Amino acid sequence: MLVVYDSRTGNVQRFINKLNLKAVRIEEDLTIQEPFVLVTYTTGFGQIPGKVLDFLKHHSSLLRGVAASGNQNWGQSFALSADRISSAYGVPVLAKFELSGTSSDVERFHKGVRHLEAY
């Protein structure tokens, strides 16, 4: 399954590099025509990045799952963008990971993607 992502500080990019999956970064003119999972970062106090929101306005019908990076120092706001996207679009949270994620985070994400692909 296609992975669509955005990265501000490089943490999400490093996570994506560990996945060995087909991935494309959100750019202003990006058009997707196949189901995808989204990997994003969390900004502010748990907000979804604006570029991600704009992308989802046009492509949410193809969204199948979401994952987000964050920093556990933010407590309840840790990777909250994943929860907000999950709630708004009715898709599962595949993973929440700190910074660029661990091998366990990568495996959890892969497991979630495999589950989605089975249905």
Automatic annotation (TrEMBL):
GO molecular function, one term: FMN binding
SUPFAM superfamilies: Flavoproteins
InterPro entries for this protein: Flavoprotein-like_sf (IPR029039), RNR_Ib_NrdI_bac (IPR020852), RNR_NrdI (IPR004465)
Membership in a protein family: Belongs to the NrdI family.
Function (record text): Probably involved in ribonucleotide reductase function.
The protein's name in its UniProt record: Protein NrdI
Organism lineage: Bacteria, Bacillati, Bacillota, Bacilli, Bacillales
